[in-house]
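PT: before anyone asks, these are the final sequences, not the draft ones from last week. 945 residues across everything. Please model them as a single complex and drop the result in this thread when it's through.
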Amino acid sequence: MKINHDIQLSDGKLKHFLNINNLPKSIIEDIINRAEEFHDNSKITKYTGKVVASLFFEPSTRTKTTFELATKKISSDFINIDIANSSTSKGESIIDMIKTIEAMKCNMFVVRHSVPGTAHFIAESVSSDIAVINAGDGSNEHPTQAMLDMFTIKKHKGSFEDLKISIVGDILHSRVAKSLIFALNTLGAKQINIVGPKKLIPDNYTEMNVKYFEDMSEGISYSDVIIMLRLQKERMHDALISLDTYYDEYGLNQSRMQLAKKDVIVMHPGPINRGVEIESSVADGPNSVILNQVSYGISVRMAIMSILFDNHHAS
Amino acid sequence: MKINHDIQLSDGKLKHFLNINNLPKSIIEDIINRAEEFHDNSKITKYTGKVVASLFFEPSTRTKTTFELATKKISSDFINIDIANSSTSKGESIIDMIKTIEAMKCNMFVVRHSVPGTAHFIAESVSSDIAVINAGDGSNEHPTQAMLDMFTIKKHKGSFEDLKISIVGDILHSRVAKSLIFALNTLGAKQINIVGPKKLIPDNYTEMNVKYFEDMSEGISYSDVIIMLRLQKERMHDALISLDTYYDEYGLNQSRMQLAKKDVIVMHPGPINRGVEIESSVADGPNSVILNQVSYGISVRMAIMSILFDNHHAS
Amino acid sequence: MKINHDIQLSDGKLKHFLNINNLPKSIIEDIINRAEEFHDNSKITKYTGKVVASLFFEPSTRTKTTFELATKKISSDFINIDIANSSTSKGESIIDMIKTIEAMKCNMFVVRHSVPGTAHFIAESVSSDIAVINAGDGSNEHPTQAMLDMFTIKKHKGSFEDLKISIVGDILHSRVAKSLIFALNTLGAKQINIVGPKKLIPDNYTEMNVKYFEDMSEGISYSDVIIMLRLQKERMHDALISLDTYYDEYGLNQSRMQLAKKDVIVMHPGPINRGVEIESSVADGPNSVILNQVSYGISVRMAIMSILFDNHHAS
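LR: through. Structure below.
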């Protein structure tokens, strides 16, 4: 399916939040600034009466719970559509399902689906007063995760221009990595390294304004930020290496940490596999901001939801 | 089980909402009028602190979600009783379960169960300050669906007296059809046609003040309203016809639409089976009000819930 | 795992609610008094914006629903962590899961787990601004159940000093029994009888300040309060007796009721097994306060949650 990366914008305003690809720098900065306002996670009442429908066609605890919490923090109502028992499981098309939920006067859809572009397809299908958020579309993008990662870097590093950032793991299959690379390029990061076995690197990486390192030590050398990706164990056979070999070659351990800058921050979208992609003492160590990322995830999602509601209200 | 169709009334006031059978015209009209007040689905705070317990012994997405949304729109709390993991699955009787939830100070039960009369049985068992709504009791009734259908007809046709209304499909097994026929008769519809294979028509249809047509073209001729029922595919062998034959004989397609009035409205309780009981272009066409029905379902359920809370409060 | 029974207190204030063991009488009385304030179950708004995360590693309808209702009655938000689909089921450790939910800025965890001490372990692990409630930890304790039982006795009997209280059933495996015996001793009940087959009595019962009766008639003779435990049918083979024999020997029936005081109250944590541990006419009879216990469960949990929030706020 051809994905229209511009459908999230209308007259330069964010109407849906679907991809970091093609998203203007000013909007990314707006989100970061708005998230800062919500940083203490206090409940606000401005969006009382709005209804957010959660459509997770793939299971999720962390992302879904964070969206539920963010919805409640802005005093909106959260409706979980039980996909497993829904009519789509009885043969109803996704579009009929969407149209039905739209008719129920929900104001926002949060969508996770294994097929790239599903959230875009839904955004193109719903009426203009509904906002759609992409909570992960297959191997394509996971833009709210990237936004909370940008917020994390901003909080801990202040700005992006001088940063050397290393993303380590299965770049090929990671929607998080794709969104991250778009965001970091847009925000003007000095250098983006991708690190991992050749088999887990996309062929077109040269178009992505990144440097590729097969060797972990070189890849994280003098980095300001290291972002470890979650290892999808079932995909390791694609790379023809064992979990043990992977940890030997790409696990972030204490000795490798010495190669990065002293004030490097270590990030991970979670849940972490201790002893698989990261050593426990690093995950829990002073440079780790992994749990901060979770907290920021609430503020950032509150920010994105409130901006979308504001932009729909204004139109 | 003998069902007491009058238990929903006390001194002429609606205390439960269980069946359209025996429901006075004035109450049906009250519900329609109240739903009109809620038509914009704005959130109201009058019923803050009330608790609605959802007891769905049969799976449902559409009806249950609509009740949850309606509950939130009137600012009451919605509690979903997880039947699959509940004590009834460990041998607790339904009455002990009901008494326990009653003791939890829930104010309203919304019940779906495969056994006809279950909601009535519960209404007879609970204390007088609790309201029970029937969200479908086996093949008996689905009264909130019928009420939203009445609201739909009223919105689009203004009144019932001059209308010719055709209900098409498996009349025999449909609780929606039963509730519809009661409601349309009470509201004084001019002519009610039922249309479908003989095997899917109840033996006692002559007592229902309807006209039966085995032939679809005759049955929808000059109709003002066509209500298509959802085909329960697993019951087609009862009628000894294949899905293809069914669609040929009873599918609502564009050419058959020419037989009805030009301003006919097409209704369906959803989810629709495209190409089984209805042609896609008809379901999505200008005469279809299928998605309007979904929207009205929120207002109508808000109306029924608020009337019941008011009547319990007054007593 | 060694359980620290004092971790719930800090400077004499209740910061978590984990066990009745070692809980000062004054705090038990505070909870009873606070529950009395919430007795009409009216909604209060003082705790708006607080978030309660429910972590039920064992299934539950009654306890979990009661916590959800209590949370809503104090206007806090309730988040259900879906353990079955959570990352712990994919190998994430419970401590990583807890740290993640903590990072989501939840203010309270309600935990049920099959391993004794899990709630204590979590309380030791979370930051000092989070309160943990034990909703059942294996065969150890079920302290909120014991508190609602104390509230029930207080409401119906006024005080504890003159009471003879009989607890009947599988004392050995019952976390409810353990919490009850601690609470009744702390509150100064005159006599606590435990009644059941020898095989279902803990070896160390002599240290518990109770009297053991193998014979039911002796055990409930002249009792003011009889607390029947739920029979865990799967454990009956441990006692080498059949369900029928059990009912013959330990079932609470009408004739045995004559042995207790005329104004005895009959309690049961629910759900009851009619004809297994209790005769239907006794469960539904005038001396039964089983459904009252359910109602009180809301007030008592509102009380415990609000005290914990107050104590965390004050610090």
